[in-house]
Amino acid sequence: MNHSLTKAAPDHETNLERIWTKNFTLIVISNFFIFLGFQMTIPTIPLFVENMGGNEQLMGLVVGIFTFSALLIRPYAGIAVDSKGRKLLYLLGLAIFVVSVGSYGFIHGILFLFIMRIIQGIGWGFSTTASGTIVTDLIPPRRRGEGMGYFGLSGNIAMAFGPSLGLYLADAISFSQLFFICAVLGLTAFLFALKINYKEAERKQQQRKKWDIFEKSALPPSLLIFFITFTFGGIAAFLPVYVLQKEISGLYLYFVLYAAALLISRVIAGKIYDMKGHRAVFIPGGLLIITAMVLLAWLPGSAILYTAAILYGLGFGTVQPALQAWSVRESAPERRGMANATFFSFFDLGIGIGAIAFGQIAHLFGYASIYIVSACSVSVSVILYLFILRKERQRELLRS
User: Fold this and answer.
1) End-to-end alpha carbon distance in the chain
2) How far is 77 from 80, CA to CA, in rounded Å?
3) 95-131: per-residue pLDDT in tens?
4) Where are the beta strands (DSSP E) in 159-217?
5) Multiple choice CATH, 20-196+214-399, 1.10.3720.10, 3.40.50.300, 1.20.1250.20, 3.40.50.2020
């Protein structure tokens, strides 16, 4: 009898530490489809703007306003996720995405596109804040870095096919048909999300302060991700046009290599984070991104384009899941929604400011200057990280 009890304990412990539950699998599949639809729009929206007669500045504004609207809604999304429920907000965000992206097929002017991009950003702010919180609830705390890495793979796999598929379809079919396909992918994500069912963290009806719009414990990693995602605005909005201007072929393969490198690095870096913490992954990842940006500024041909894709994917895949896991590490369960909202607010802010700023920079100084500024931005993140690390060590010494 004692022997059977002894054998049962490890099985029970293994079950408690399991990542791939039914609900986790559903959120991963749902995330794949919404990201596939989203990734297909990333390189094609600037082309859509250009097709309607817009210049680099308008491209940057249309890309950037999406992220700013997501940013502005995130504090409310964080509160609503914690107080009204994760699944409700996730479904609402997905529904808004479907309607807004589907409407692009009926747009014939940049002003209306601008308005619908704001609405899409609201849906994106709701859905990504809620999905990140659902995943945080589902993953065992001791395996959070690894679990975040697996969850991120769904977006990475979508990233491997989405941009290239979007560019291919933009050449083969009309923009209206392309955006209808993106909306159908969002609807598929919605249907999988409907099946998610688990006991959420207790909703505590707290009296919130008027300016309770961020989670303080999540600020250090959120500041770091801001300077890193600043680079993404330059890639999402302007790399297709930059490569075309340089008469370099192989942009499709760039996104595939980038996503493949992300896929590999996320899993490995997530496990390293769980074992050794962010100190083991952040600086190597940051240096890889800086190198990628320098190569894009140079960009003499396809070989360098592909090398930059791999280095950027390895670097971003190393840094992002570790920073997201760090952002929820110190937060209470009932504040995880706000912690995720804080992290993704800075994530979006970096992309939005980058896209708008790079539109002006490209207009004045050319596309290569975008990536020089991007390398400087990541360098600032590395320096800021060393400062945060020093503060952490000082606190550890005071505790001891």
Assistant:
1) 45
2) 5
3) 999 999 999 989 888 899 999 999 999 999 899 889 9
4) none
5) 1.20.1250.20
